[in-house]
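FAQ
Q: What does a multi-component entry look like?
A: The components come first, one per line:
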Amino acid sequence: MYKILQKRELAPNIWMMEIEAPRVARSARPGQFVIVRASENGERIPLTISDYDAERGTVSIVIQTIGVSTRKLCTLNEGELLPDFVGPLGRPSEFIHDDPATLCSRKILFVAGGVGTAPVYPQVKWLHEHGVQADVIVGAKNKEMLIMQEQMKAVAGNLYVATDDGSAGFKGMVPDLIKELIDHQGKQYDLVVAIGPMIMMKFVAATTKAYGIRTIVSLNTLMVDGTGMCGACRVTVGGKTVFTCVDGPEFDGHQVDFDEAMRRQGMYRTLEQRAIKIAEERAAGHVCKIGLDK
Amino acid sequence: MANKIGRVPVREQDPKVRATNFEEVCYGYNEQEARLEASRCLHCRKPRCVEQCPVSVKIPLFIAEVAEGDFARAAAIIAEDSSLPSICGRVCPQENQCEGACILGIKGEPVAIGKLERFVGDWSIRNGNQSVEKAPSNGHKVAIIGSGPSGLACASDLAKMGYQVKIFEALHKAGGVLEYGIPEFRLPKAAIVAKEVENVRRLGVEIETDTVVGRTVTIDSLMDDEGYEAVFVGSGAGLPRFMGIPGENLNGVVSANEFLTRANLMKAYDDEYDTPIYVGSKVVVVGGGNVAMDAVRTAKRLGAEAVIVYRRSETELPARAEEGHHAKEEGIEFRMLTNPVEVLGDEKGWVRGIRCIKMELGEPDESGRRSPVEVKGSEFDMECDVVIMALGTSPNPLIATTTPGLETTRRGCIVANDEGQTTREGVFAGGDAVTGAATVILAMGAGRKAAQAIDEYIKSKQA
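Then the predicted structure of the entire assembly, as tokens:
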């Protein structure tokens, strides 16, 4: 069992939880993720790691409540226990294997979309600790949905914000801000790391391709076990089928078949929406008499 | 003479009824039936059944006790060689092992050794397990990776010898393939698997779930930082294979591993559990092994029309005879000598059918089975909305890639000799991680052999 040490709402429907998980904390590296179960009957939910502290033995996760399982997870409070917390899963970001000299000369831009800000943070923090000041773009729907700004500011080189409605920072989508930085502000990058909704990563990859900048994306596919056993997470990268959980989650964004990945992400959507409806109806005290909840 | 009577039939759930539920298919023998069946054993002086058992259960001895009605004694005899009789009695391919060698089988039907083993296992679960003899603690620590059949077998033998044993399991539940792979209707989880795992725990074996070796910890960290003197890798089969045909990434194509894990481990068929499972209305399962049978029968129970597509003929089906037989009784359609060439999708990217080609049997291949050859121009389409690929697995790279000095074969299987010794000192391996997908009992056999080798290794280090 894994204790919830801290729980905070970062933005509407976005929560941060700090979990006591010493083994995971000791082994976690930037780019990796965990799988969590909120209850004995619960799903295995893949979630990104937003921070970790080997000494304290803690790992932080950020959860957006979108389905029945993430909602259940977020009903748990500080001091309560998670039955399962497995990780770190996936391969760490490739830059952690760079030799220090190469690493220091790198010009890296991170592009975080929405809750994707969470997994970007440990990467930027790691680089900061290794003497690299990476630039970061954080995109969100509006000012209210921006998360982890203070933490990010402390470790990033330049922090840029883009919101769809212009309520904070640049008004527009993140690919437009990338263009703005490169075309008009004289910025140069040799690596872009984009993490956020699939559709955002697709457009970022398309943008950077035009500039010829190597681009890494982190895929949030469906998953069951997260150790290579089920193949639910398979994606096509460079024409080859690979497993996100053991071969990823980070891949060359210019090689990923995003359209297929997005379609596959929706495989259980109808079933999930049904489950949400049933849960809402039950919560409202409605008892189905014709068996639709079966 | 006792052998004048025929094999005592075993009671089973009616096929029509059981095709709609997840209750166990076979009810097993009651005491009377078991004693009668046990009385058929001829007690050969050189028991061929024992030779054919990968863990060498003293079959005639335990059967004699069953015939006498001393079930506790029978259980104790089995426990000397196997910790999982209720499981093996249910899932071993007895027809190729003990029962296949039974002398009674030459002219008639062999003794129902599997059903008797199951009876004894279940009897001891119901009546409180007998304590097994265990050597005093010797203070040496051994780590086991994976709580499937090989890991459990290795762990129990080592624990009996006095070792301090800890199993590291990646999933949230112990049991490996017994939990995620084999369905409830063939191997009940709470009533059987959990109980037999509990027996292993009772020997003093600790099981740490949620620990992925190669990620959460490594073999090096277990040996260097946590003081384990030897490690047994029983990490199982690994990554599901796909065919490499067009359309395999369409929505609705899943591996048997995924489909069965959702159903078995995550209990997606039960409304009280949150994990979804997509069944559709017509399911095509590609493959002919036990896993294919498990997947197709699970799909049927979830309400779909379910079909097996297999490229060889029925005689080559690698599944246990009983599984094929049960599947047919339950109304599963078998399309033999048929091989998929493409999965067909609709405009939204969901499966709408599968294109297959007819096959015929050619010359025998290296496995001795006649290899299937395509019949030119015989392609045809079948409608379906789910395709389940049950084509076997390839080894999981997590451990091999994070353990320096641990060699793998070209196919990615861990290299180990007959005793389980790998290319890395102190590291042993067995089961599917070494052989590729095989059976529960072969994995158990490998686990037992490795336990012996680990004992010798640790003793030799002290000398």
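Q: Is there any commentary attached?
A: Sometimes. For this entry: Chain A has a mean pLDDT of 92.
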